[in-house]
Model the fold of this input.
Amino acid sequence: MGVKISWDSQAGKGLDAVEVYRSKTKIDPANPGTPLATLDPSVTSYEDFTAVNKNLYYYCLAAKKGTERSFGNSQLTGYFSETGPGNSTIARGSWNSGFMDRVPSASFITGPDLAAKLTGLIYSGNPGSPSSWFKFAYKGRVLFFPDTAMFNTTWNRFYEAGMVFGTDDFGKTPAGVPGSVNQKRVVEINGLQYIVRLAKLSDIDLSKYLTLQDDTIASEYRSTLTRTLRATVETQAGALRRLGDGTTLPIMLGQHLYSATQAAYAPAGAPATLGAAAITSNISTAVVLELIMP
Done:
């Protein structure tokens, strides 16, 4: 199995060949490199069996006639042998930041079942919640966000449960390492493994306090989940193009600290604002499940 691309027939246009180009970066028509494949003009698809698992590639077609070439646009495609439950391709957006599916909890995992796998935390939602999980591709990873809050607890308790940073270390804050608990908490769901962690509300380094809401633009959270909201809810200038028409989302407690004693969070369905809660105060929040790709 490889990456399959297809296009409209070019037969009858007097071409000598259709060339397929591939690169890890956008292909420059002035310097495209060597074609991955040179095909008869009547061919309308190509499957790349040399693609390597867990990689993103740009593909570009060129219509060749003599020494002349006419290039199409570079198209980003991901190649992953496993993406978890739900659709395995991009429904809206791109492989850098795209909506894949809305997966029913019955096909994935319910809140109580997830809590049962996470000693140290108690599920606080309704027994039937979340009703579904938003599935996104983001910079070579596959992420799942629940449609409701799941845990009513503190940033400190998340840290003690190993669920703040999602990294194989003790984490980082402006004051240094916050403790001695490894932050790569992994659960197995239907034979696949997922890292359970808090959301990344900003791309600024964790050694800095997150106090400016503008610093959340283009973050993991703003590039994925908030794009399911309609423009009247996601009102901030600079926000990425809408992928849905939703009106509300759960609170998302973040990895960053707001101050020495406060954690930053995204209020429910209000991405154009930034909240702060004491690291010792309970907050009802959703979490992120990040697929560990085989």
About this structure: The mean pLDDT is 91. The helical segments are 111-117, 155-160, 220-223. The chain has three helices and 19 strands.
